[in-house]
## 1
Amino acid sequence: MTGAFGTTSKPPLAGAAHFIGEPLLRSFWRVRALGAWHVPMAGPVILAGNHANFVDGPMLFAFAPRPTQVLVKREMFTGALGPVLRGIGHIPVQRGVADRKMITDSLDVLARGGALGVFPEGTRGQADFSAVHNGLAYLALRSGAPIVPVACLGTGARGSSIGALPGLRSRIDVVYGKPFEAVENADRRATRKAVQAASDRIVERLTAHLREAERMTGRAG
């Protein structure tokens, strides 16, 4: 089976970058990773995070308890950054279209028992899972992989500018929830109706985790 790298082998730099990223990010911010034991350490799993600031992606990647390949917008793969992102296993996403290669590459990661990081809101949104797209449900149905909700809290204001970054040495919480299945029964046919039903269930579970994470960390309004 071929995937993002033309093979089912793991990305060459994924493990090293994963362990370098954590101390690097901790040099800028006070990061707490809570509930990481909920992430299965073997077998396919999808880590689904909320997304307001571009810092969310590095946080999910660096603080996951196992190397994770993350879906990243295609525009980030230009210039010198492109080979780095591909080397650590990230998968480009073409937004606004049915990206067949992204789907194939993502399913390849899960088929070989890997971890896939997804921001189901797509673009940076309100970070409250209110605009989850059906792509996550489709991948979960096709792969049978459990979903682990991830709440990134304190990562800064919505946006991609330097001004939107969290303040130096401010506290950031990355909170993992209990894994769950996209469907309650064994029927994993990815029909349009099934995908929509799974997506509704996913939104409910992700939103509930976000509210619990806010309460647990004292960030609830």
Note: The first strand starts at residue 30 and ends at 34.
## 2
Amino acid sequence: MKLYGLLLFAYILGSFPSAYLVTKIFTGKDIRKIGSGNVGTMNTLRNIGLVPGLITFCVDFGKGAAAAYVALSSGVEQWILYAVILGLLIGHSWPVVLKFKGGKGLAVTAGALAFIDIKAGLIVFAVIGIAALVVKNTDIATIIGFAVYPFTIYMVKHDVCVLLVGLMQFGAILARHLSEGKSSVFSVFRAP
């Protein structure tokens, strides 16, 4: 019962549309109709500005940290902590309040990992940073970073259940990136 309550809490918290609200406050516009249409930090930063982008990042990071804090305080098993991140990620990426069109989950996952497992978080975000420098595409870099994520948390936690939940998280992030027809992920596969 505790698992379902935590997952529901994580989904609802993840669904809080920070990029949408910040953009509305600063410009009166709908972030879903601007730039990539993604309801997240990067689209806000690129198209609305530095301050709105930083506010969005901080709120999204805070959502992740809050979900992790509540889960940790509940004294649940390790795999449930990662399941809570999955619930948060699903809420952020497919929020019911925005007709299931949300962000890609980078900031919320960073916030959660900062509390649950800073070591694994640093490894994953270092891989994303290096990949971004090499491939010059943040979407592809994120996919690469989260491809190593399940194995990174498994190496740290040595728990098969954690590995399985990590693979589901990677699946959610991959699905969210590939669900955008105009995503720059697809540009890599197009002929020049």
Note: The radius of gyration is 16 Å.
## 3
Amino acid sequence: MEIKFSTDLQTILCYARDEAMRTGSYGVGADHVVLGMLRHRDNDACRVLSACGVDLDAFKAAIDAEVMGERSVPWQDQSLVRPTRGAAALVGGAAYEALRQGGHEIFPTHLLLSLVRHEKSFAADLLRERQLDFDRLFALMREHKYAPEVADAVLPRMEELLGPLGEQLTRLYAGADTQITYLS
């Protein structure tokens, strides 16, 4: 079984690496993935959050305040920036959501659903404080046609997904050579 990252998700994951570097982290964590999603605002996950009344700028500022380091990672060290287990678990959960919905491509909405189930993420805590849990988000996604009706499918075990997804994530970061310039 093959599952792929959508173009939007690939963009978000590349931005996540950039966000980790901007905030001074050599490890791309789940919160950096959310910052990447917020940076790439033209996606269904951001539209869902906006529909739930989340101020995306305030959400980003709160996450930034939590993860911001004293110094950014130098651009020449970009090859040293790698996904953490938290980010891999978030992406693995998104893959599970895609498969659960009968798809073979991971979209930002799957990432958002995985996030609200993620236990070790500041961004997830912020959403839970707003009573944005899995059931509420999924219902809103279905109402606005961002998620199909869930069919009873035979799902692979999470361990079967994480190996290939981790490899895809590592290849994606290794292949991303576009330099981003941050304006101050």
Note: Residues 158-175 form the longest helix (18 residues).
## 4
Amino acid sequence: MSTHEKIANWLDNGRYADFPNSWDDKMFRTFILDRLTPETHLLDLGAGAGIVVEMNFRDHAARVCGVDPDPRVVDNPYLHEGREGFGESIPYEDESFEVVISDNVFEHLDNPAEVITEIRRVLKPGGRLVAKTPNFWHYVALGASITPHSFHRWFNAGRGRDAEDTFPTRYRANTRRDLTKLAKDTNMSLVSCEMIEGRPEYLRRWWPAYLLGAAYERIVNSTKLLEPFRCVLIAEFQKPG
């Protein structure tokens, strides 16, 4: 067994035994399930081709729809209906959904205020938008913001993601301050904004980096004061009424 395998197994089975693969999406799934009923009409904004199995809610809601610029969305197996479109012009009627979800989409938005305004339009009064996105002040997002898209595609290919599923990043709605302002500008309430640091996924390919990532995780989880530097941001907005 190589040094990398020994150290990776030691961390995976020790400190991160409670963090399976795709732990952030599994956590987000639980967050969403707590807000669904069998009568819920749900919209997955940025549903794509259906590559994230944790975003399959067909058996937990009355109707699951999806919107994405990727034409593969119409064949997404996790949806009752998929439509090709953009967040700035969602192809659904006013007040169509009780819940809108967005998994790793906010970091790609050119005009987040326009998108949230559109989400507000298709939400029923009192409806919820729940979104997971990287926190800009984490090293992963900071690194991504200063590297070219070609590097992102190469890096994600090493993690098993197809190049066509790696999209340009903008990071215009990726801090608590950004989201607070967006809520105010779009007449939405920011109900909660949680920041979570778990197993350092992007550093697990090299054992020295994995050790550094584990040390970083321990530090930012040691005190509430360092919460703004944690990796995953889960935000919940509510439409008035």
Note: The beta strands are 41-45, 63-68, 81-84, 97-103, 123-134, 189-196, 232-238.
